[in-house]
Design goal:
heterodimer, A: 577 residues, alpha/beta, six-stranded mixed beta sheet, 23 helices, 20 strands, B: 339 residues, mainly alpha, three-stranded antiparallel beta sheet, 15 helices
Chain lengths: 577, 339
């Protein structure tokens, strides 16, 4: 309770501090949210927040996952199921000022889509797969503006053209799956803008897109915002995006708005410690570099590596033959001992396939060697080489089996590679591995009564930790568990497949620091797969850039980032901000 | 707390399902001891200074002053008179009829209505309906349990093999299931009932042959989903063998539909046995069974006590199972699990 009170007092101070009042304060705001609280089944997740949006303003709402930012936006339109809302949300619409939270459902429906529109994070699931894009945009126009079928289809083509979709006449008849990710998001935007709303709620509009597309979508939103003069409430966790897009920013933490103000002020003089931590969370390169030891042979080498997937052929031919989809072709690389090879590229460029091949889980053609020996699914039966290469996956929620305890998960590798190890020693090794990833300390509430004889060196009760299940840990802790699971059998190469992209920025920084420390201490090599240039900048020594299954550029980190040659690399680096 | 413990807590929070489970288990345990509750032999008897345990050991009638060497009919008024003599006594079970006991001493013609002697009357051969129901319930539930266990084991194995290995294995198995599933199950049963002597074992075998397919599809789907999750990949990278991965990782995470369907499969099995018995294709004649009682009720439509009581037992059994199933489904629902 005391934490909340202190937060609340800080909040009051923040609000009391004079914001750079331009002429805007004179106008009545477009949206005036007062003391908004949202709770689910008696549990409050948003605690009485206040904010305003002026007409034509670009407001960003930032915070980490679980901070309540999406719930806040959705509850403005009362789109959250089973939520209890309290407070007021005054919207100045076409019929004067109304409270969105008490408006009858029927009248609220008139506001939704017309005065306030929304775009979502994942356009693939936000568009109905059974209707064409045109039909879906036309539906809005027919419903809200009462246009006829032919007129609304014309208007839909017009809208698609405005959002920069090439050949709108043809695309209007396309289904969601026939469009690329960027085009889908553009179509979503076209749909949201169909009725020229006064306020656009954009919930992580670029998160599901590739880096090179993010900038384009942002520019599009920016242009349309200026043209239509609408206000935008952008929900995001990406500070680069805020800096680039928004006028004013609200920072949310645990259901409180801890700081708000013009973007430049907040970024240059963050008042609240949480804001400082957020801004500070850009992954940093550890200064204490180790030089690679030239006497050690490379951990992994590939020459003309080619990986294909069988795909069914259409018609009768498919009965006898399988076609092939080339995911990676002609890949040459080498991972020196104790160094990190970064692999960047957008989704579909073959980088995850490369990771699976490096793990020896996919059949391949060409040459691939791990620890000087031929490597692949057949060689992987040899347990001695198997333990050389281990993996950490992107999603910490699907990478740990939910029905095993921490001890079972982390100790699993020992069961395979050192089956003769007696149980107490195995437990000791598990504890050691956990300590190494910073999980040796008691993690918050430790469940279960302490048992005799099982105390960590520091006298802490760690049995609770060993007997807990993955769902009791946060994303960052789970990622640490995944790292411990890989480290326990002492591999030489760790394949990191987007190791931090599912984590909040502050956690991301901690995990990257952990990985850098482990590399220093143990001389580990990493194959780091990512789409995030910031992560590459912090971690990699060598970089390869992939596009459409081919390596388009490779070289030392400084060369790739400072003087990119390939046009794709250039957009990538430019968009990283 | 492990995920299954959490599911159990959620199950307990559903009062209807939890109480259904308690009531069902109590009834089942009681029916397992049916011989002690409903039997035509006294639990213990004393006659002329000697102790007898007739329920365990058959005693000839001559022992108690009868005329024949045959096993004693303890419902015979003469025998009961003998026990009523001072110094003698017999402790009868709560309901003094076995399911096969013919009540030769009923006051009305068979089927006779409810009376103080036969609480729910007798069937058309003079057997006590309460006893028939009790033993019939036991057979139904035991049959359903065995059939469910066999079906679940077969379903998990076949589903796991299809889902985990995928590809050609999956393709061939699926075609086999399609062919197998299109066989006319009921006609096969009729044919087999004509060829072989009817027995519970035969019924179990035949129904098991066709009962595993539904579950196998669910397990297959779960395996297909789970085998490509990251924790399975990580296990592969650690070097676990296929069977280790199935056993440690995929199987425990694929059992949700299996557990959810358990009560519903039980009730389906009870219903299947009942319908077959009703048609006369089920258990051998003389075996107490709910379906056979229903058939009697149909044939003796004015003997309402047969059909009504059987109907009540059947409906409450199925209802209890359905309530349990609902609660279980809610308890295992991943969306509710998150809250």
């Amino acid at each position: 309770m005391s934490v909340k009170q202190s937060l609340r007092s800080e909040l009051v101070e923040d609000l009391a501090s004079p914001s750079t009042g331009s002429g805007q304060a004179v106008h009545t705001p477009l949206l005036d949210v007062k003391n908004l609280s949202v709770s689910f089944g008696g549990k409050e997740v948003v605690h009485g927040i206040d904010f305003t949006i002026q007409p034509g303003e670009k407001l960003a709402l930032v915070g980490e996952s679980g901070s309540g930012k999406t719930v806040t936006a959705l509850s403005l339109l009362r789109l959250v199921m089973d939520a209890d809302l309290s407070g007021r949300s005054l919207f100045r619409g076409s019929r004067g000022q109304i409270d969105l939270l008490t408006l009858p459902e029927r009248e609220l429906r008139a506001i939704r889509g017309q005065d306030i529109a929304m775009i979502f994070q994942e356009p693939m699931t936000a568009l109905n797969p059974l209707f064409t894009v045109g039909e879906q945009i036309a539906e809005v126009l027919e419903l809200k503006l009462g246009l006829g079928a032919r007129e609304s289809m014309q208007a839909a083509i017009q809208l698609l053209a405005e959002t920069g979709i090439p050949e709108p006449e043809r695309r209007v008849k396309a289904f969601a799956h026939q469009l690329s990710g960027g085009q889908r998001q553009r179509a979503m935007i076209a749909m949201a803008l169909a009725c020229q709303p006064k306020l656009l709620l954009a919930d992580e509009p670029t998160t599901a897109l590739d880096v090179s597309l993010r900038g384009q979508i942002l520019d599009l939103l920016d242009g349309l915002q200026r043209k239509n003069g609408m206000a935008v409430l952008m929900i995001t966790h990406d500070l680069n995006l805020v800096r680039r897009f928004a006028d004013r920013v609200l920072v949310m933490e645990n259901g409180y708005i801890v700081e708000q103000g013009p973007v430049s002020d907040v970024f240059e003089r963050p008042q609240h410690s949480y804001t400082r931590r957020l801004i500070d969370s850009k992954p940093a390169r550890d200064n204490a570099e180790i030089l690679s030891d030239p006497t050690r042979p490379p951990v992994m080498q590939a020459r003309a590596l080619r990986v294909t997937y069988p795909v069914p052929l259409p018609g009768l031919r498919g009965w006898f033959k399988k076609g092939e989809f080339v995911a990676v072709t002609g890949a040459d690389f080498s991972i020196p001992a104790g160094r990190t090879l970064g692999v960047v590229g957008e989704s579909g460029s073959g980088k995850s396939t490369l990771a699976l091949a490096a793990l020896g889980l996919l059949p391949h053609q060409g040459e691939l060697q791990a620890a000087g020996k031929a490597w692949g699914p057949d060689a992987a039966r040899n347990k001695a080489i198997r333990r050389v290469v281990q993996v950490v996956f992107q999603d910490p929620f699907s990478s740990l089996s939910p029905r095993l305890t921490v001890e079972e998960i982390v100790g699993e590798g020992l069961l395979v590679h050192e089956p003769d190890l007696p149980a107490p020693e195995r437990r000791q090794r598990v504890l050691q591995a956990l300590a190494e990833v910073g999980m040796g300390e008691p993690q918050g509430s430790v469940t279960g009564p302490p048992q005799d004889g099982m105390r960590s060196p520091g006298g802490q009760d760690v049995v609770g930790l060993l007997q807990r299940y993955p769902h009791e840990f946060s994303g960052g802790q789970r990622q640490r568990l995944a790292i411990a699971r890989a480290l326990i059998i002492r591999p030489e190469l760790l394949v990191l497949d987007e190791p931090t992209s599912a984590l909040d920025v502050t956690i991301q920084k901690q995990v990257l620091q952990l990985l850098q420390r482990l590399q220093r201490e143990r001389g580990l090599s990493y194959l780091l797969i990512t789409h995030d240039v910031d992560v590459i900048r912090a971690m990699a020594h060598e970089v390869i850039v992939m596009k459409d299954g081919e390596i388009v550029e490779s070289g030392p980190i400084y060369k790739i980032l400072d003087a990119p040659e390939h046009p794709y690399t250039r957009t990538l680096v430019a968009n990283a901000g | 707390m492990s995920p299954s413990q959490r599911a159990w807590l959620r199950f307990r929070r559903n009062r209807l399902g939890y109480w259904s489970l308690l009531i069902f288990c109590t009834l089942f345990v009681l029916s397992l001891g049916a011989e002690l509750i409903s039997n035509d032999k006294p639990l213990i008897a004393r006659y002329n200074g000697q102790w007898y345990v007739p329920i365990l050991k058959s005693v000839p009638e001559t022992t108690f002053g009868g005329d024949f060497q045959t096993p004693t009919d303890y419902l015979d008024p003469f025998i009961q008179q003998q026990f009523a003599k001072p110094g003698n006594f017999a402790l009868y079970p709560l309901n003094p009829y076995h399911h096969s006991t013919l009540n030769y001493f009923a006051k009305e013609p068979n089927p006779s209505g409810p009376s103080t002697e036969n609480w729910l009357g007798t069937d058309d051969r003079g057997r006590d309906v309460v006893a028939r129901l009790l033993y019939g319930f036991r057979i139904s539930v035991l049959f359903a349990l065995v059939l469910t266990v066999i079906g679940v084991v077969l379903g998990i194995i076949t589903g796991a093999v299809q889902g985990f290995f995928g590809g050609k294995t999956d393709l061939l198995f699926q075609r086999f299931i399609e062919i197998w599933g299109s066989m006319p199950e009921l006609y096969l049963l009729i044919i087999f009932a004509a060829v072989f002597d009817p027995s519970i074992g035969l019924l179990l075998a035949l129904l098991s042959l066709f009962g595993w397919m539904g579950l196998s599809d669910y397990v297959r789907a779960e395996f297909l989903r789970n085998r490509q999750l990251d924790y399975v990949r990580a296990a592969r990278a650690l070097g676990l063998s296929n069977w280790q991965i199935i056993w440690r990782h995929v199987l425990p995470n694929s059992l949700t539909p299996v557990v959810t369907f358990l009560p519903f499969r039980m009730s389906a099995a009870i219903l299947a046995l009942t319908s077959l018995d009703f048609l006369g294709l089920g258990v051998p004649p003389g075996t107490p069974s709910l379906g056979e009682l229903l058939a009697q009720g149909k044939n003796n439509i004015d003997a309402w006590w047969i059909s009504l009581s059987t109907f009540a037992v059947l409906v409450s059994t199925l209802l209890l199972l359905t309530f349990m199933g609902d609660a279980l489904r809610d308890a295992l629902d991943p969306r509710k699990a998150e809250k």
